[in-house]
Amino acid sequence: MNCLLCERRLQSLPSWQMLIAVEKTSLICDDCSKSFERVDIIEESNLLDRITSIYTYNEAMREYLHQYKFLQDIALAGVFMNELRETINTHHTIIVPIPMHPIKKIERTFAHVEELLKTADLPFDDILVKTDTAVMGEKTREERLSMAPLFQVKPYTTIRDTTYILVDDIYTTGTTLSHAAAALKEAGATRVEAVTLIRAETTKL
């Protein structure tokens, strides 16, 4: 098997975690793996009771995201499956992926956050609907603060007395996670956390 990023032959030996199925075989080589920088940032905000970001947005991550999301190389969904499995708590929690707007999903052909979770074998509930096609990175701070709610909880959804964990690929301005958390809390959720694969900036929510 070859590395999905540099296409060199993979030569890694199975670990004990792989043998007992706790960890899956890596899809990239050690050199490519080392090009990503872990930061493991943990914070909280007014709406999010805990926010965890695993990696920083460096050049290697920029190239990965471009190939995965915009060149639609869906096989790359599994590159960080072990890190997501290690980070996202599945004990008495409900995992909620940040959804794409239906129009954006048709353009991209797949829901990239859902694919990350599926490849990591993490169960999730798709209970949010995105109501706006806006790209947060293209808006000023004032424009983001004045935006109408970006998400709605799907009709007939029962909000349970447990922790909801929002999952997104990247944290940039924090607006997306803040709006998603607000939708869940307005619907009755008492605790909402978030996990992002990447942290692009250090701006607090």
UniProtKB/TrEMBL annotation:
GO terms for molecular function: glycosyltransferase activity. Keywords: Glycosyltransferase, Transferase. Coiled coil: none annotated. Residues 81-201 form the Phosphoribosyltransferase domain. It holds the Pfam family Pribosyltran. Belongs to the ComF/GntX family. This is Phosphoribosyltransferase family protein.
